[in-house]
Amino acid sequence: MTQALAISRFPVPDLADMPEDIRARIVAVQEKSGFIPNVFLVLAHRPDEFRAFFAYHDALMDKPGNLTKAEREMIVVATSNLNQCQYCVIAHGAILRIRAKDPLIADQVAVNYRKADITDRQKAMLDFAVRVSTEAYKVSESDFATLKSHGFTEDDIWDIAAISAFFGLSNRLANVTSMRPNPEFYSMGRG
Q1: Angle at 29 between CA 190 and CA 86, to 5 degrees
Q2: Residue 36 is part of which domain span?
Q3: pLDDT digit string, tens, across residues 55-76
Q4: Residues 42, 86: one domain?
Q5: Could you tell me if 169 and 145 lie in one domain?
Q6: CA atoms of 49 and 58, how far apart (whole Å)
Q7: What is the distance, to the nearest Å, from the Cα of residue 85 to the centroid of all Cα atoms in its chain?
Q8: What's the CA gap between 135 and 129, in Å, rounded?
Q9: Burial class (CB in 10 A: 0-12, 13-18, 19+), 113
Q10: Considering the entire predicted model, what is its pTM?
């Protein structure tokens, strides 16, 4: 039998030793998904940062608006691939497959969204998200005009930028902590 690989290079607290609010959130996620995504366990090492991270995550990813939940996940997958974040590509790829009801979409978006079976609107969205991830200093009014020509509002543009920026932080933390994707993610939403 092989030894289980560590999910983080930093200490991972036991569920029983976590603050009650964090433990309750993790248990709720476990009841819904059937397992605990490693990001919750790894970030529980720093309770105040866990709370801030997930509050901002939820504000960006769970809000209603013109961007669908699947489109929000597309942004995460495309930009996380640029940042070579294995955890986020695998975990959010699974969520994207489920939200888009498409077993192929996450792999297409992660490898080359420009060739993916998505709309021109979604490609424009991802072009902008990638620009924010790689060269935000070059964002200009022409980027806004392009997005508006595809029906995006100012609030949508803020959301695209904020998701891209937030997951830049997430990708870096996942890489520095050596966060491992849960095995469950690999098969989710594939059929």
Answers
A1: 50
A2: 20-62
A3: 999 999 999 999 999 999 999 9
A4: no
A5: yes
A6: 14
A7: 10
A8: 10
A9: buried
A10: 0.95
